Amino acid sequence: MMAKTLKQRLAEQIPALREERAALMRDHRDKVISQVTVEQAIGGMRGVKGMVCDTSVVEPDTGLVIRNIPIKDLTEAMPEEIFWLLLTGEKPTKEELAGFQKELKKAGKVPDYVWKVLKAMPKTSHPMVMLDTAILAMENESLFRKRYDKGMPKQDYWDPMLDDAIRILGTIHTIAAGVYRIRYKKGALIKPSPKLDWGADYCRMLGIDNPKLKKGEKFNKEDVYAMMRLYLVLHSDHEGGNVSANTCHTVGSALSDAYYAVSAGLNGLAGPLHGLANQECLGWILETMKKFNGAPTEKQLEDYAWETLKSGKVVPGYGHAVLRITDPRFDAFRAFGHKYMPNDPVFLTVDRVFNVVPKVLKEHGKAKDPWPNVDAGSGALLYYYGLKEFQYYTVLFSVSRAMGMLAQLVINRALGTPITRPKSVSTEWLKKQVLKV
Known about the structure:
- The chain is mostly helical.
- It is 59% helix and 2% strand.
- A hairpin with a 2-residue loop joins strand 2 and strand 3.
- The radius of gyration is 23 Å and the shape is globular.
- The mean pLDDT is 96.
């Protein structure tokens, strides 16, 4: 039996998915699924159940679950497998994976005008501005827009949207690597390899798989390739309500093509409250090490954690809006660190903080969730393998999260999801409603 392409597999699934949604609307359209409090209306709609996302959910006692598979069970997967899983709900066969990887390679040509744009930007441009500008510049390549302008049946919207998604996914790691080399003067651009997988090739194009070694040092390229694959898998999706996914969804709902929508989502990810956390966590770790002239003992960390909390500050990387357990993604990074860099001072500090801080936060009594989230550990791994430019870390996050944003875009066009248009109310209206109650 011949392996199916991703487009063929989706085409088989879409009729049943459309019927499922039509049945929900036909039989249950008036059922109430959520109520909104004044606090939620004023406080960023946190916790309001007001949109549908099938790619992943975040459960308080499980963590991230992608298509009914807990993320802890996907740590050995390839990023390309994750994208297939996000879209179809199934892992690809070995043959399907190989075919999809070839499809990504075929779609991987970055237009020359993109490099000209990036090289013409100010030398001090933020790496996220460069990545976002490059993706938006590539809108010229959109097959969705071209077919829409010619007149395309609504039921076919998903088809060119998938083509655009594959083009973005096939190029974003190359663009991101180019941004790194241009912005930080790392030398000539490195062209994609026809042989390496998506994550490994990203490493190679960054140039971090070939470091300058001191006498006696050893380095295995496969280790850094494994780190990058893990990073890309763990950050690939996180429901539909976070700033980047929700922004991408909203822009896409207006039938803007994937280049517009992903670019918009990346602008949200660039915000300090969304995409800055892992560099803030690593910064705190390095400052702590500087204070103690190296990796502190657990007793020193305990005292310092109390000092931090009593001064009104927080320990970055600890606490999560939804989770009530250690983030399984942190567990995965920690396990990787124990395997590949157990004696690295930065990783040792991260590990010791984990052994100490939850207990301190419990005793302190103000944290709903005293456990670490994914950002508490990811920066240490990047730092160990030579990625020490903190501003670039959000670009890595973006390359990964593009998978989730693109998968959600394609699914919503397949299902005919309408334009997003919630109703806003004034403060005066709120006051009147409260008085009525």
